[in-house]
Amino acid sequence: MYVNWTPRLRRYIINQWKLGITPISEIARNRHVPRGPVYYMVERWFGTYKQEYDERFSGLNDFIDYYNEERLHQGIGYLAPLEKYKSAK
User: pTM for the complete prediction?
Assistant: First the structure.
């Protein structure tokens, strides 16, 4: 698998290793890992995280709050997940 090692991606991978988290790119190389629908949803979330995480966020929890409460998602009619959840009740 080819990875374009931009400085930002390099920092992301190094930080993942420091936290004891195996980066998704390493997991993807392992052909024995089952790949069902959840795998692809997680892969998509990590892609969004890598593209949108920046200095606005003080940590992962801030990003998750933004992702669930503020970020508009095309797949659910340009609503934030929290809005969609509340409207389904």
Answer: 0.57
